[in-house]
């Protein structure tokens, strides 16, 4: 069952998938349509899942799930990963590599490998105040409050001196 992201309770589970490049407006429209089709049919052991989609900054695909009605099972999570893999293939993007870092560089959103990010930290090209995207958030409230944070307040802090 598809709902609007804003209607999900704060304790809803979220999955954040970052693209390795900015998506065009046309790609975002297509991805939104395909994702909504998937989420409308998404089930766990035959039970409808109340889910929502948000695409942020033409770069992040965020899926939210209200677990109060039904929780995602192993099979339903597998189905969502297969869906994300199909988006990767169709749009020639990487959405599943968690070893990359996305952060603000001025007004732009930069995407770097973890190794490049570590080097930038060592070279002082980024600081503890650089705003990073913490894609390890688990709930809607964490996503809303702790997703875009200074590096010092995220797991990224271990790379900063």
From TrEMBL:
<protein>
    <submittedName>
        <fullName>ABC transporter ATPase</fullName>
    </submittedName>
</protein>
């Amino acid at each position: 069952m598809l709902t609007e992201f804003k209607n999900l309770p704060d304790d809803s589970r979220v999955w954040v998938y970052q693209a390795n490049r900015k998506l065009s407006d046309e790609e975002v429209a297509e991805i939104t349509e395909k994702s909504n089709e998937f989420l409308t049919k998404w089930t766990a052991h035959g039970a409808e899942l109340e889910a929502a989609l948000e695409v942020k900054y033409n770069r992040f695909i965020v899926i939210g799930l209200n677990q109060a009605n039904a929780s995602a099972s192993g099979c339903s999570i597998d189905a969502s990963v297969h869906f994300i893999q199909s988006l990767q293939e169709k749009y020639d993007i990487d959405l599943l590599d968690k070893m990359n870092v996305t952060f603000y560089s001025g007004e732009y959103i930069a995407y770097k490998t973890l190794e490049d990010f570590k080097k930038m930290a060592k070279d002082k090209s980024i600081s503890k105040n650089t705003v990073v995207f913490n894609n390890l958030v688990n709930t809607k409230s964490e996503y809303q409050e702790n997703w875009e944070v200074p590096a010092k307040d995220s797991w990224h802090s271990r790379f900063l001196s």
